[in-house]
Design brief:
Blueprint (H helix, E strand, L loop, with lengths): L1 H4 L4 E2 L3 H8 L12 H16 L5 E5 L5 E5 L3 E4 L27 H15 L7 H16 L8 E3 L5 E3 L4 H10 L13
Parallel strand pairs: 1-2
Antiparallel strand pairs: 2-3, 3-4, 5-6
Helix pairs in contact: 4-5, 5-6
């Protein structure tokens, strides 16, 4: 991973792959649930792999969303399908029923991520962070059914995926985040 990060701009393993790298290739339950551990591991890759080059480590964390680390800051993004903020799972257990099959969620994330990095239009977010936001939305469409998401359009030609507009979901997910993104506090 460190060698690869010297010649690429972004590395995006899932949390199991990232943990296995630091455990000598052993796939085990990743000990990356704590953001401090994840931040520390990302800092190792940034310092020893990307070095001074602008780059990002984007760890895809399944139902926990993703974590974006760059030399500029570290940011944790929630998954689109999650319990509403300030609501317990017992009060709203149906949030997870939208998730039918996680197959393709990571690939959907990466496609959305690339679009977001190239678009770079969300005020207050770096291009990698905006990519992560779109990646989480793209993954949400991929996991709502078995197979491909359903593409339809409105009478005026607006694309709908699984009956929803992409940017409605982007706005919803953005509302779930702090008004002002702050870097995760990292003590080295």
């Amino acid at each position: 991973m460190l060698e690869a990060s010297k010649v690429v701009d972004v590395i995006s393993p899932n949390h199991h792959e990232f943990a296995a790298y630091f455990q000598g290739g052993q796939l085990a339950d990743p000990d990356l649930s704590e953001l401090a551990t994840l931040a520390s591991r990302c800092n190792e890759v940034l310092a020893n792999g990307f070095q001074e080059k602008l780059g990002a480590v984007v760890v895809r964390r399944g139902e926990k969303g993703c974590y974006v680390a760059s030399h500029e800051r570290h940011t944790s993004f929630p998954a689109y399908h999650q319990p509403p903020r300030n609501v317990s799972l017992t009060e709203s257990p149906d949030w997870k029923t939208k998730v039918m099959d996680p197959t393709g969620g990571g690939n959907g994330f990466l496609g959305g991520f690339c679009i977001g990095v190239l678009d770079d239009c969300c005020a207050g977010l770096t291009s990698h962070e905006y990519g992560a936001l779109l990646g989480n939305v793209a993954a949400s469409f991929a996991i709502e059914q078995v197979g491909m998401p359903k593409l339809t359009s409105t009478e005026n030609g607006t694309e709908l995926w699984n009956g929803a507009h992409v940017y409605d979901r982007v706005r919803h997910l953005r509302e779930q985040m702090p008004v002002s993104l702050q870097p995760v506090n990292i003590d080295d």
